[in-house]
């Protein structure tokens, strides 16, 4: 009797192991296929390698979801590539027209200044376009970008923001503490980050407010004494299409989201502090590891 019971127990264990292995093996194979799916050609399907049971249903659902996301990502990349390619032609034509007009016409001093502004804006558009394409491709190298120190970038953005600040009756104050051996950073990326931080401060700071810029070799702070940002919104304001309580018509809620994506791409750090009632301070650290 003991031998019979022991044999039955052993047989039950063996049958359990065999059954479990037959059930688990397809799941392990499906898991391995999902892990290596990114290395396969586009629109590949895993469901064809599995029987039409529960495992096959899971594989089919994975195929449908993954291929849908893959096609959506491909359409987005093609769109950004097409936009980048097609917009370069009219921008080059505009620059050429400016050069021809300057060579053929004797421009006055004021007209020449306006022409320089037009040329500078077109070149700025081209650099911004290169920035967006770099972010869309997921790259982080900036080999073809001009470079400048933090002090130079801050001073440039401050001069561009002064006319708008005067129209809004705002005061711009700058405190710089840079050194002669300051590191340099990609100009288009730094210009985009600083420009969006300043525009955000100009938009939400009330009439008669002060906007203070404090900058060092590797960091900059933009502070305004506006109404402030609620504590529960400090992370949400960096999400796309997030706007403040009183946004302007031309504010799409993408500026701070773009700032966040550039910082993630370059390994920079962006943070915000805003106690109740203000002031609100955005801080950019281009070399946070050295803090």
Task: Explain what this protein looks like in three dimensions.
- The structure is a single chain.
- With 291 residues, the chain is of the alpha+beta class.
- It has 3 domains: 2-71, no CATH class; 81-137; 147-290, Heat Shock Protein 90.
- Helices cover 56% and strands 12% of the residues.
- It contains 6 helices and 7 strands.
- The protein has helices spanning 2-35, 54-104, 109-137, 150-167, 187-204, 255-266, and strands at residues 147-149, 171-176, 184-186, 210-215, 219-224, 269-273, 280-285.
- The strands form 2 sheets. It has a 5-stranded mixed sheet. A two-stranded antiparallel sheet has the order 1-3.
- β6 (269-273) and β7 (280-285) form a beta hairpin.
- The chain is elongated and about 110 Å long.
- The model has no long low-confidence stretch (mean pLDDT 83).
Note the topology.
Blueprint: H1 2-35, H2 54-104, H3 109-137, E1 147-149, H4 150-167, E2 171-176, E3 184-186, H5 187-204, E4 210-215, E5 219-224, H6 255-266, E6 269-273, E7 280-285
Parallel strand pairs: 2-4
Antiparallel strand pairs: 1-3, 4-5, 5-7, 6-7
Search tags:
291 residues, Heat Shock Protein 90, alpha+beta, two-stranded antiparallel ribbon
CATH homology-level superfamily of the largest domain: Histidine kinase-like ATPase, C-terminal domain
Strand segment tally: 7
Average of per-residue pLDDT values:
83
Q: How much is the radius of gyration in Å?
A: 29 Å
Oligomer class: single chain
Q: What is the end-to-end distance? A: 76 Å
CATH architecture of the largest domain: 2-Layer Sandwich
Please state the structural category.
alpha+beta
Provide the helix percentage.
55-70%
CATH topology of the largest domain: Heat Shock Protein 90
**N-to-C order of helices and strands:** HHHEHEEHEEHEE
Helix tally? 6
**Order of strands in the sheet with most strands:** 2-4-5-7-6
Q: At the first level of CATH, what is the class of the largest domain?
A: Alpha Beta
Uncertain runs are: none
Global morphology: elongated
Q: Approximately what portion of the residues adopt beta-strand conformation?
A: 5-15%
